[in-house]
Each structure stands twice: as structure tokens, then as C-alpha cells.
Ribonuclease PH
Amino acid sequence: MTSTASQQTITRADGRTPEQLREVRITRGWLDAAEGSVLVEFGNTRVLCAASFTAGVPRWRKGSGKGWVTAEYAMLPRATNTRGDRESVRGKIGGRTHEISRLIGRSLRAVVNVAALGENTIVLDCDVLQADGGTRTAAITGAYVALADAIAWGQREGHVKKGAVLTDSVAAVSVGIIDGTPMLDLPYSEDVRAETDMNVVTTGSGEFIEVQGTAEGAPFRRAELDSLLDLAVAGTADLARIQREALATEPAGYRA
Amino acid sequence: MTSTASQQTITRADGRTPEQLREVRITRGWLDAAEGSVLVEFGNTRVLCAASFTAGVPRWRKGSGKGWVTAEYAMLPRATNTRGDRESVRGKIGGRTHEISRLIGRSLRAVVNVAALGENTIVLDCDVLQADGGTRTAAITGAYVALADAIAWGQREGHVKKGAVLTDSVAAVSVGIIDGTPMLDLPYSEDVRAETDMNVVTTGSGEFIEVQGTAEGAPFRRAELDSLLDLAVAGTADLARIQREALATEPAGYRA
Amino acid sequence: MTSTASQQTITRADGRTPEQLREVRITRGWLDAAEGSVLVEFGNTRVLCAASFTAGVPRWRKGSGKGWVTAEYAMLPRATNTRGDRESVRGKIGGRTHEISRLIGRSLRAVVNVAALGENTIVLDCDVLQADGGTRTAAITGAYVALADAIAWGQREGHVKKGAVLTDSVAAVSVGIIDGTPMLDLPYSEDVRAETDMNVVTTGSGEFIEVQGTAEGAPFRRAELDSLLDLAVAGTADLARIQREALATEPAGYRA
Amino acid sequence: MTSTASQQTITRADGRTPEQLREVRITRGWLDAAEGSVLVEFGNTRVLCAASFTAGVPRWRKGSGKGWVTAEYAMLPRATNTRGDRESVRGKIGGRTHEISRLIGRSLRAVVNVAALGENTIVLDCDVLQADGGTRTAAITGAYVALADAIAWGQREGHVKKGAVLTDSVAAVSVGIIDGTPMLDLPYSEDVRAETDMNVVTTGSGEFIEVQGTAEGAPFRRAELDSLLDLAVAGTADLARIQREALATEPAGYRA
Amino acid sequence: MTSTASQQTITRADGRTPEQLREVRITRGWLDAAEGSVLVEFGNTRVLCAASFTAGVPRWRKGSGKGWVTAEYAMLPRATNTRGDRESVRGKIGGRTHEISRLIGRSLRAVVNVAALGENTIVLDCDVLQADGGTRTAAITGAYVALADAIAWGQREGHVKKGAVLTDSVAAVSVGIIDGTPMLDLPYSEDVRAETDMNVVTTGSGEFIEVQGTAEGAPFRRAELDSLLDLAVAGTADLARIQREALATEPAGYRA
Amino acid sequence: MTSTASQQTITRADGRTPEQLREVRITRGWLDAAEGSVLVEFGNTRVLCAASFTAGVPRWRKGSGKGWVTAEYAMLPRATNTRGDRESVRGKIGGRTHEISRLIGRSLRAVVNVAALGENTIVLDCDVLQADGGTRTAAITGAYVALADAIAWGQREGHVKKGAVLTDSVAAVSVGIIDGTPMLDLPYSEDVRAETDMNVVTTGSGEFIEVQGTAEGAPFRRAELDSLLDLAVAGTADLARIQREALATEPAGYRA
């Protein structure tokens, strides 16, 4: 976590500097049955990422020799301050849910060599147990680790050939401008105040997979965009390191 | 956990005697925002119970002076050994989900003095994070504790008058006959083998709220029914004690 | 219909003793096309049960050599005092409907030898034309007779091998405690007043298939549960006799 | 039932002449609770028509001083030779169902003086218990009688002012050309063979409310259209007489 | 466009005589990709008709050697004066939409020799861009031309054998009685005032495919029905000529 | 349209230079009834944008004094090369549709002074009649003009106070990297080949409202991101000029 002299003087409500991540925890093996599973926490945001490995691919992909990776994102009704209706009860999935599910799936596929995966499917379920901002970026960051575990499982079980299936790692972080200052990894209380809100997904080697910036209040200038990108790239580099460390140790499992 | 001499000779796959509960844990305060929240575990079964308190009641109950308590049960897609489709994606709620949600709601309402609650609504969301049998009984047992916490919150905040809102506690357990032996609190591996399967909901004082017995294989005789009821009543007495102990201490919260 | 001396002094609004069934009628062959069809009446409750026989089984059961029996329950919008919305118009099936459909299916399957049925499917449609309490128990009782007729049709037509497909008969009845007295076969006016409500499904030989008891008001004691079970077992024995008599005669058909 | 000499020589499978209706029965009071109810039979076609009277009108009509009459048509799954899926299970209403519901509603409204009805709503539920052709025409014919009974109920109860609410009666019949011969009131076996199929709704005084003719095979000529209209007008005159007779007697009720 | 002396004295709001069509335009080739496409205009009513040709037929028709033609009708939300909700957003298709889609499909199939079409499917999408009365009749009239183009495409590409697939042309028009005068091709302002409203579909040779007449206010007499049919037949003859002329020239395409 | 010397040597399939827009047309007043309506064309992509003005706001915004602007995007089934299923028929809206509708709404709201709009709602319906890449960017660009017309209508009719409601204009364009070259405004044939795909929404004064970049093949580097942003900003400046010109002239209307 690098920081410039000028920004260090600003302290956030939770005591962080503008360019600092919240405490990030990645607990592998949180579920007993899933081929890969991670409880990822970005501060108070908690997302359970479960990777389900199944031999075979959807019909439209059969015979291609290529695998498929997809994701579904959802939020428990009381993950937020105020209870939300269940999408299963309303009978349809909201636009936001669809959008985030698609983003997670695209982000993961960007680092998967589908030919090396072979005709196997991995579904990543990212369920937000508690939401305090950055749920989609936490989900991507945790889902990558669960995906890596599920691929390793597939190789151990002989469903996937040995060799690299993942071409790189992938992590994501949110950035935003608050009272004129670009800040990294926004909790909910900052997110609602941000003038500009951006989610950035990068590879472990620092290249971009997704850049999604939105002016919440006033439009933003190119210089602001540039400083947000700088901040995000530094943040995802930190996350990539945390992912590597998590994967380097034995899975701790539930009640770690 | 009482046990008769004759049954002690049978040992189950997990080392329990037929009349023994699995390890039961009740972690209060697992969520930061919910007015009551409990992570309840019956062995490997883990259910997150969140109680949401809102002032006011549904339209059909307005002006009655009475409150309302309801519940929604759901299962994460990878709570089970094989991933299940999300009900939100399928666009409708399955019969089993409906049935269990209704059972939880009825069971809780049986111990709520709705007049004492006043025109307030408490929704209990019971989301199964991991399923290893007995998810509905764990949900009822945990939801009772979350409900008690939400009522206490309502009284602290002045939404509910001081005084008893709960007329008793409520807990539930499953029982079944396996290879001719009645057994308490079945994990999934036993549940699928049970000839008869029964879920029993009782009050803390040992009276019945619900009795649901189903012949899975052969029909069952009156004597078998009686022995299952005996076993269940002893089991829910144990659970009532565990609930009392959980409520008697300070909430441990997440990472307890 | 046996009755104890002590109970005889209580007379119900419709003149029955506590342990007496309402007038039960079973009219076979009410539909021209269905392989089995019964209009079953428990007093003013009228349920049309149609059994549809089709060769073949659902995909998940193909090649098993075993048949499948399932049921769908529904209520006409004006079966009740106040018109209810159609589930087809609301676009989803309610929890109660699901629950009862599942109960009927389970109850019938408990007496079907699916291997003897062979790879054939029988669907029981139980549509409530008029509801005056006990619709689910009337449905089970009538559906059994329609099922028996559909199996006989399958054997006559050569789809099913000769020999016993049904291992026993099945009938159901409701019981409840009203003003402290256990009573059999509750019409709507009694059902809404019952402190405890129980539906019991038994075989013709008096063993239990389902026991579902619910405390509507106060929790119930073991002694009450026992007396309700006694009453129900006597009631279903009566129903089993009425079923046997209906099956022993030529189908009367519509306008019997 | 008039008939011309030339046509009398043709006899239909069920023994009728081309211009003869099937046996038509109208049983009033088939349901205990509905404000009007009719079991109408055109041969083997049986439709249960229930009229539900409620004070008040839909929001868009409030304050207009005018009432509202609408209809919902549906078919039980086993009304037909082959079981059909329930629309509630499929989660949506088919085009045919919608179309017929709208036709019934329009036909009835054509004879209702909505100002005389006052701000009251009558819903006609027409549920086909058994289908053998002509279900929509039987439904209209029966629903008119149930509607008349529900209006009379509203007047007896003081919800509707005394005086004529119905400006005329309404009845409907199907006609079709089979092997070149125009025929009245087609059962299913004739309906599938008809080259042209027409449903005609008229008032008791013989004027047209709806004319719906469809070329099933070859297009039809003006002369054919004319002869079908002649046949239909004679048929609905017969039906109007049967309706008058049904309304002139005391309701027979169920088990008439 | 013929007109009788007596009617010429009545002039409509848009200057037409009662028996005159609005200006009708048929623009072929409005879309680049569709196998047939027509923008059809009846005055201000504009419907885009796209014919999609695909080899193969639905499963229930496979192996029959016969093709299939079907249609889907819809309206853009702001085709009308007041914005309507999207059916995709409401999650279900309205009765009117279903009814018109079915009418268009039936009308087109009446002139298709499905055996000559071979096992190919043509779907006609008729989307109303602007609605000013007569959208269904414009849709049928335009869809016929798009269908003819799609069949010609199928023959050029070798999917369909050379030779007549269409047995005749098909066109449709609305007629109605306004202030006692039968009028042809009603715009919205006349449609809402019509006492009787009729849609007539005929072949190019003047025979009937569909006749759908509805009394909007008072029931109509046989003489009125006859005069409406006369008017409609003359109108569809005009439309058949316009269709022939459109098909006789090179497609003009978009920005004609 | 600026261009660098090095890029001018590359010519695209349609003859454009990499930094050139397709031919853009904006036809105002394409619909008669809508308060604002535009047919916008980016080459062969044609989107009909209709702005519907209604007094009042959704319930959650009542009494705020602020207006509301929202958008719904959809595609006609045969807008594309291969016919797609209607979302109304499938009964649910796809993720892509939701995502684009939300993007359009957000983009427009970024330039609306909701307090100046007052408690009025404007819904923008963007229906793709023909899709050849860039449908969402064409929709935003056209919808802005329709929105401006609807606001002017609201002011002429006295629903909105005189004065600036729009704080700036808004336009959008797609950019992508194809064979290593950044290119502006991709048609479908280029879009499917792009390694990186970005949609950029800017104000007329050149500031950013949305930036959405996605690596379709390999991740992209910061330098590539920078050059895509340069290209997009130049493109939206061109579009802003075209919008100004369109709004400066009298609306041409349909058949311009």
C-alpha cells in the first residue's frame, strides 16, 4: 500500500488512509462439499464464494473441447441495513443482480484457458452474507481463489489435465472520489457519498479486465479518472498478493 | 441427554448414541445490522437466522393492535452435495421451500403474544449455508433466539412495551427410525435411510406445537410413533436448555 | 362408527357426535375420458379426483423399471365462501397448494408397488369444486379410488401386468380439539374454531402414513395428541370400508 | 328446433339432425355459497359457472356510478381426452384461455345496464369440468343464468336497486360446415372435422353480440356464411327458451 | 374503391367517404437481414412485419414433411397516445396480444400449402410502431407480403422447392357502424365511437378466412352485419390489388 | 473528426478511417403522439427513442419537489441477423437488457436538474429496430434529443417552469481495439472481433459520465485504455455537434 505525502493527512472514518484497503480475509474451505469455497471479507463485507465443478458443458458448447465458467451473485435479504425482498419471492432477478453476475463471470473467464479446462463447467456462487460496500469486488477477489481450488480439485480427481488452466490471477477493487479526494475500497458509508464510483478488475500482472466508472453526482474529468485508475491498480496489486498468500497455505476451513 | 440402557449399545456413524443430539452451537449477533441474528449449527448443518424488526403491520392487520411474525426459509445453491438451481433464477419458489417457511412461521407464532408485540412486524430469514439434515429444525431452534433478540431490541428502542411478549420458548428436532431403531437428530446420511421421518416442534415446557411424521418406506405402527415422540420430547428439552444458556450470556457475535 | 358414552352427550352443529364422519359419498366414473375418476364428498366438501394414466415415466426414472404416481391439488376460485384469485392468473402456485399436492402424492405412493406398476405414470388431479373443510383428506380418500380404477384400466389394456400393484388402501381424515373435545372430520365452521388441528393418513390395515398436527391456538399435550390419534384411526377405518364398498360395485358414473 | 326437409335426411353420429342442439341442461344453485351458480351441460360438455357478487368496483371505475361484470374461463386438466398441463403450474395463461375469458365477459356486458347495477362487481368463473366441444358457448349460456341469479341476490340483499339490470338474455352456440353440410352445436368429434367453425352469440331477441367465424380448412363463401348464421340464430333462440324455463322454476340445486 | 351515391354525402373527419381506405403503403425490404420484411402503413398506423425463415420445424411436426407458419404481434410502449407498460416488464403477455398473434397466424396459414413449404418454419413478427386503429388488419395485410418474400427467398436459396407455396393472397380490414353508418378502415378516433366493430380477413379471390364482429354498444341486426360484410369485401379487394402491385415491383427498402 | 497521420492508412471494411463515426442521422418527431421522439441511426443501427412525459412521480419520490427520468431498452426479435425470442414470451427480461436500460437512465439523469424538472416523470423507450453494433450508444445519443424535446413540450404546456432543466447534453460511442488498432464506433462485424470493447458516455463539454471497458480477449494495458479514451472523447464531441444541429432545426418528422 503506497501512499503520497499529501494524502496521508486525510483520515477516513475507519482510520484508513485514502489509499488503504480495509482488512481483507480469505478463508478457504468454508464449505465441506464444494470443490472450492471461500469466505472473503473486505472489512464488514462478507461474501461466501462456492465453486461447483461438474464434468460436461452446456449443450451449445458440447464437442468444442472447451470448458465453461460462469457465476451467480445474490444477496441475502438481511445482508443490508434494511431488509430487501427475496428475488425468489418476487419471481424475478433484478437488473443489478444480473449485471454483477455477468461481471463476475466475465472477469473470471478472462484468466481461464478454457481449452486447458476441457469440457468441464465451474459455477461460482457468490452469496453476500453481509454487505458493507464493495460486494462485487470482494466477490470477484474471493471467487478467483475458489475457482483455483476447484480447478486443483478437478486435476487431483483426473477430470482436468495437469498444467496451467489459469493464465493469471484476477482481483477487483472499488475506488471513488469523496469530497474531492480519490479513495480506495469504499465501505457503504463512503459509497453513498462518492461523486464518482469506479470498479476496476485487473490481472495479477496489473493489466485491465474491466473498468466501470460512473459519475454519481457531477461528471468527472480525465485527470480524476487517471488518479482513480492509479489507486485501483495499486489496490488490486495488494489483493493479488493476499490471494497468493491464501493459496500458498493449507486451507484453514470453517472456524479457522 | 438421557439414554436408556438398551439403546446405548447402538453406535451411529458419527459416534452418537441413538438419543443424542449432534453438537449444537448458537452464535448470537452474527450480523451487524439485523435486530436479531443467529448462526445456528446442528453438527455440519449451518443456518443463518436474521430477524428484521419493522414498525407497522401488513395492511390486513392494521388497526388490530396486534403484531405479526413470519418467516422465509431458503437454501444457498451449494449448501448441498450437488449444486441446486437458485429459485430466483427458476422464477418460482419450490413446494418444499414454501412448506418449511410456513412451518417456521407457525411455530414461532405459537409462542408470541401478538397483542403484547403491538403493531410491529418481525420477519425471520432462515438461510441454509450448509445442509446436513435437519435444516428446518435447526432453523426453528435458531430463529427463536433471533426472535427473542429482536423483541428485546424493540423493547430497548421503545417500539414494544416492556413485559413478556414470548409466552414460552420453541425448539424443534427430527427423529426417525433407522434399521428399526428410533434415532434423534438425523444427519443427511441417516435421513435418506430412515423408514419413518418425523419433525417435532415443542415449547420449552414440553408441549407440542407441530408433529409431522411421514412414512418414507413402510407405514409405521402406533408403538413406533410413540417411541419417536418420546425421543423428540427429550431432544427438544435439551435444545430448550441450550437456547436458555445462549440467551443468558452476552452475544458473542461473529468470530466468536 | 363407534362412540363412547361420555362423548355422546355432545352434539355438533350438524347433529353429529364427536366421533362421527360426515356423510361420505364416492361416485366413480364421474368423467368419461379419465382412466379413473371419482367425485368424492365429505358433507358439503366436493372434490373431483381424476387419474390420468400414461405409458412411460419422467426422464429421471427411465430405465428403472419403476412407475411413478404424483398428484396436483387445486381449488376452483368460488369453491369457498369468498372468491379467491386463480393461481394461474397470479402466475404462481401458493404454498398451501404445493404442500397439499405433495402430501397427496406421498400418501398414494406409500401404497403403490412401483415395480409392479412398471414404467407407467399416473397423475391424480384433485380439484376442489366446493370446500367445506377437510379438502385434503377428502382428496386423498377419493384419489385412492381413482388410482385403483386407473391401475385396473392399465391392467385391462395390457400396460400393467396382472397382480397386486396396490399394497393396501389409503384414506385420510381430519381431527381437532374444539372447546376441549376431540372431534372427527371437521367442517369449515369447526375447523376455524379448533385449538389443535390434525390430519392423519392411514392404510386400510390401520398403520400410519402421515401424521400432521398443528397447534392453532395453545400448544397441545401428549394426552390430547393420543386421543386425536385414536379418533382418527377409527375414522379412517370407516373410510376404508366405504372405499371397499365403492370399489366392490359397478361404477355408477355421472348422474348416479 | 326447426328443420328443413332437405337436411332431415342427414343423421349425425349421435343421432341428431344437422339443426338440432344436443341435450341442454341448466342446473341452478349447484354451489352453496356463490351468489349465482349453474352447472350447464351441452351433451357431455359440462361447465360450472359461478357468479361472485361483491360490492364496489375496480379502482379505475370508482365514482362512475357504474358496475362491472367480468369473466374467467378455465379448463380442468383432465376435462379433455388427454391430460393438459395446469396453467397455474406453467405459470402463465394460454392465449386460448385469455381469448375465451374476454369473449364471455364482453358477451355478458352487452346485456347489462351497468348504471342500474350500480357500483358492484360480478365475476363469472366458468370452469370446464368435462369438454366435448362448445365449451365457450355453453359457458356463455350458463353464465347468463348465474349472472341473473347473482343480480337477483344483489337486489334481495339491497345492494342493487329494484328494476331491470339485464336488458335482454344472451346465449351462444357453435355452428360448422362438415362434409359440406352446415351443422349446429358441434361435439368434439365434429369440431375437429369442420371445414369452417363459427361461434355466434345473440340476445334473446335474436340480435348479434358476437360473430366469430374461422376457416379451418378452405376459405368459405358468403352463401355458406349466411346459412351458418341462419342455423345459429335458430339455435340460440332455442337456448334462450331453455334459459327462460330454467329461470322460471325454483333452483334445483346440486343433486337435482 | 367503389362508392354508392347515397353514402358519398357523408364525409369523415379525415375527408374520406365511408367506403374508402386510408392511404395504404407497403414498403418491402425495410430490414437488411430478415428474409422478408415490410413496413405497412394504414394512414398513421405503422406496423413492421419481419418474416424469419428457418430450416426445420417444431418437434411436434418433425417427419411430417410439412412446414409451419406462425406469428407474434406486439406493440411498442409508446405506439399509443398514452404509454403502455411493456409486456416483458410485466412478465406476461396480455390477452389481446395473444388473441391477435393467433389471428395473424391462422390467417396466413389459410393460404399456405404447408406440404409445398416442406419442413421449414416462417415466423412473422408484427411490431406496431405507431397505432391509429386497425393494427391487426394492417399486420395481416403486411405480413402476407413479408411471407411471400420469405418464401421466395427460401426458393432462391434452395430450401423450398419451386412452385406455388401460397394458394392465394390474404388481406384484412376493419369495418364498423358509426352513428348508424357502416364505415371502412377505422382510425382510432372512429374505432372508439363504433357501435359495432368487425374485422374481416379474406383471400385475394374474395372468400372469407375470418369474420369477427363484436357489438360494442347495442347488439346488431342481420342487415347491419350484411352491409358490413359488403363493405369489408370491397376493402380487402382493394388491399389485394395494393399487395399485388407491391410484389410486382422491385423492393424499395428503407428510405424508399 | 481529427485523425493522426499514422492511423489514416488503415481503412475499415466500410471505408472509414479508425477515428471516423458511421453516418449518424437524428430524425425528430418520428412518432405523432410522443412528447419527444427520435429515430436515431448510426449506420445500419436504427433505434426508435420515445420520450413519454407524465405529470407526477413514483410514490417513493412524492413530495420531494424533484422529477424522475428513467429508460427502458429493448430489441425487436428480428433486429438481429438471427431471430431472438421475445422477452415478453420468455416471461423475463434478460441481464443484458436490464443492464443497458439502467445505463441509459443513469446517463440521462446525469445531465438533468431534477429540481428544475419538478415532480414530473419522463420515460425514455429505446427500441432497437435494427441492430448493427453500438445500439446502446445510439440509444443514449438519440434519447438525449427526445428528452430535450419532451422537456420543451412540458415547458410549452406549463407543466415545467421555464429555465434550464438540462445542465449539459449527453452522447455515447463505442470504441475498441481491432488487430491492435483502436477504432471508433464499431459495427457488429468489428464488434465481434474486438479484443477490447469500451462504451464511453460524455457530456457535451467533454467530461465523463460512464466509462465501461471490457477485455474480450486478452487484458488491456493502460496505454491502450488511454488511446481508447482519446478516441471516444473525440467521437462524442462530434455526436454532441450533430445533436445540437438536430435540435437547432425544425423537427423533420416521419418521412423526412
Observations:
- Chain A touches chain F at residues 92-96, 98-99, 101-102, 106, 110, 168, 198, 202-203, 205, 207-215, 218-222, 225, 229, 233 (CB under 8 Å).
- The longest strand of chain A covers residues 45-55.
- Confidence is low (pLDDT under 50) at residues 1-7 of chain A.
